Amino acid sequence: MAKARLKIIPLGGLGEIGRNMMALEYGEDIVVIDAGLMFPEEEMLGVDLVIPDITYLKENHERVRAILITHGHEDHVGALPYILPQLDVPVYGSPLVHGLISVKLREHRLLKNVRLNMVRPGDVLQIGCFRAEFFRVCHSIPDSFGIALHTPIGTVVHTGDFKLDHTPVDGKTMDLHRLAELGDKGVLLLMSDSTYVERPGYTPSEQVVGQSLDRIMGDAKGRVVVASFASLISRIQQVVDAAEKHGRRMFIMGRSMLDNAQMAIEMGYLTVPSGLGTPDELKHLPPERIAVMTTGSQGEPTSALSRMANRDHRFLEVIAGDTVVISASPIPGNVGLINRTIDALFQQGANVLYQGIADVHVHGHGAQEELKLMLRLVRPRFFVPVHGEYRHLVLHARLAHSLGIPEENTFVLQNGDVLEVTTYRAKKAGQVSSDYIYVDGLGDIGQVVLRDRQHLAQDGILLVVVAVDKDTGKVIGEPDVISRGFVDVSVSEQLMTDIRTQVVNAIDHGKAHTTEWGYINPKIKETVAKYVYKETRRRPMILPVAVEV
Amino acid sequence: MAKARLKIIPLGGLGEIGRNMMALEYGEDIVVIDAGLMFPEEEMLGVDLVIPDITYLKENHERVRAILITHGHEDHVGALPYILPQLDVPVYGSPLVHGLISVKLREHRLLKNVRLNMVRPGDVLQIGCFRAEFFRVCHSIPDSFGIALHTPIGTVVHTGDFKLDHTPVDGKTMDLHRLAELGDKGVLLLMSDSTYVERPGYTPSEQVVGQSLDRIMGDAKGRVVVASFASLISRIQQVVDAAEKHGRRMFIMGRSMLDNAQMAIEMGYLTVPSGLGTPDELKHLPPERIAVMTTGSQGEPTSALSRMANRDHRFLEVIAGDTVVISASPIPGNVGLINRTIDALFQQGANVLYQGIADVHVHGHGAQEELKLMLRLVRPRFFVPVHGEYRHLVLHARLAHSLGIPEENTFVLQNGDVLEVTTYRAKKAGQVSSDYIYVDGLGDIGQVVLRDRQHLAQDGILLVVVAVDKDTGKVIGEPDVISRGFVDVSVSEQLMTDIRTQVVNAIDHGKAHTTEWGYINPKIKETVAKYVYKETRRRPMILPVAVEV
């Protein structure tokens, strides 16, 4: 058998919100870090979410020992309900991760069949030939961990998502001492969060947001509604603290956020001294006694906040006098949706506070000085930037060069790349399958379906319906033309008549040779496409439909 | 006849990039300021651009005296080729505007039929009962004007797009003195640019970009490629200046930018001492002697920059050693496209500089302190914030309140709102038509087409094809099921068979009552929709197609 080498294989992780998943392999053992989903980009039409391609893991199923989770955000745990039914491996994460995943798996009715295990900072697990050690980092959710994976050839440090917050909401700071100790003993390879590498300096502490919320709750004469991500438990705590301080009763709207909050309360991650209010109380309390936390910070049209803005919510309509706080930063693909929600809220007469005009959100990722500190503390031999778009990885690699890590020891990996690492050398060695897996409804869809949707979205569809004699293959009668999403029916009668004429001519021309459908079909397509483009400069999908009778 | 009142009617102007158009009306005279287009938002599928609704102007055609243009950007002039064929009125703009519009009208083969007139700062036109006076402002294109419209009941000042640049590229600063003088004499109403009202402080001068470009051209060892908007003549000048200073030959790629540049050179707005290079020279010059300016700063897939990034351009492929500068800010809907282009450029090995990591772009709009200065200088009785999204108008109105303009004298208008103004009072009075007009190819499309495209984009289409006897209305034989953009054909054979069975059952069930197509059609639709949703959680467009034979 060839000498075993450590392999590092990102199976996801490129993208603004990355469906993070990293496989580490040595000999007979594979361990996976994170199993996240990605929200679809604009051109992924009708796609609900995107998950990593686990073909490689399925092919090596018997060697996959565990999935280790760094923290409970969707881009790190969201793919578990899709992956676990296909890959029966134990999952290890913090108590909060355990809670969040359980909520999620219960929704998918998968909770009973999976092996969830809790780990705490300082815990060390023996997983095959690996020893996995969890250490605390700061991020925008409690219980965020980095992982030191001690392998037969050295220690690999994976930071998870992190920033250096000296005053986090839960008071639990990053374990700088353990990182320093690891760096002291020697680290073979560092994988570090690149998301915020474009920003110079330091990311502000979550405390900044706490102070803003406090001021807003104190100053507002009416109700205060704060929108954020459902899993941002720390933010919920900050809103609760500010609300209670100013004598406001706390309400939570949006099922996912309410589920998460209730779980977090039960597990002790969220403290709501006066408890949560009920929809009934909401009706009877005066506005200045009300604080609401809700989902919808990304402007999702079916979210609680969008419904409130459009007066379509069961319990709460935003009205003049309300203050609405968007306590989140937009995912790039959602900027338009968020802006429209903000506009709708202003039109209802609300005062709207959002990033850009008020300090109501800070990023959960470290900026350049924090990334430098991590590189200095860990001082690895090899460096693999992770999390973020390709440009972030390149910039993070450059940052590492500027601190003295040689270029040849730095690897910008794309999804599916295999990095082979020995004690003194590392090199890219091949590729494994790493497609986007597009989840739509109950199943996934492929490139063909997506391309068809893009085509349909651009210029609609034009059907040419023809009856064909099933015995002779001859066309019977006249063809019909139907369109959707192509032209306004009211103004296009003449165009449709003309297209029909074009089709009749095409078929007639065909008749001289053969009446077989297989010949006429492409002929119709070509004729109609050409004519339609000339007349309209549009390229609808053209679908000749034969009905055999 | 009722006493004449001044009416202010925005026919466009809401939106990040606004298809700006403002009608001002008094008695028998209507004058229009700007005629811009808007780039489509994400959900406007397949739409090329959006233009203002000129129904009101067409209905009052004989009273429309002129269109006055503030400056040559697309969101202020881009709708002219679509509007002028429907509305034969003279257009007045600066020499540069004249040049840019001429380029555009020539493309549309409209140049001969329109009445374009040049105006210069200080010019005063008598237009019906109005006197229109043009004064210089600073923006990111030379020859940007504000307009003082002297009406029978007082002066209306429209700022156009502006910022307070004390060191503009062309050295021509804003006419603060005339604004002060107007303010001194008394201004009835101010309409002022709201685009950048979210930002505190001042927008930096274009000089900042010039210095960055100079440094980049000097430092880069290879070619330098700068992408920006085709109409950003000032930026082109800055790139030329930096290129020539460092001994680089200047090339311009992208037809629209090249057309604009050539026009600007002819008219004296752009100075290229050594002239522009030809594609042939590009092949033979050493990299450090090359500077390229190109379109594609918004990541448009067919633009020159995208082609260069994907090695699909006729004359230039981006390679390792090249420096690429994205000298523009993203329009919100384009963030994803731009990020993908930046990633592709990094993957080619280029060094990419963009807003966020380098000072390679400044906004063309004034921030809060500049907007305050405008309000103070003009000190109008009434204030109407213009340009920007609804939230920008609200924030700008608040800024005006903070400077002492009473709330009741401030009006946030939506497109189509009519504001009636007398000497001492103003109030909203009704609405005129102000739909989005979606241009796609050679014509425009309506809401139905757009909704169909959105439906098709989400989950595709499912055709149920049935042959019907044209005499009896009876269904002949078995139905067929065809789909596009719905499910992967390879994995859905069973589903298609099941849908077929469902359809057969629905028709059989129908037979008990009647065999008329009008009855069966909705029955099929309902049955299939229900079944498909249950099985897939998707809602494709379901289109029963009857073929009469």
Could you describe the 3D structure shown?
Chain A has 549 residues and is an alpha/beta fold. The first copy, chain A, has 16 helices and 25 strands. In chain A, the strands form 5 sheets. In chain A, strands 7-6-5-3-2-1-19-20 form an 8-stranded mixed beta sheet. In chain A, helix 5 packs across helix 12 (368-378) and helix 15 runs antiparallel to helix 16. The radius of gyration of chain A is 28 Å and the shape is globular. At the A-B interface, helix 11, helix 13, helix 14, strand 23 and strand 24 of A face helix 11, helix 13, helix 14, strand 23 and strand 24 of B.
Quick recap:
Two copies of one chain form a homodimer. Chain A has 549 residues and is of the alpha/beta class. Chain A contains 16 helices and 25 strands.
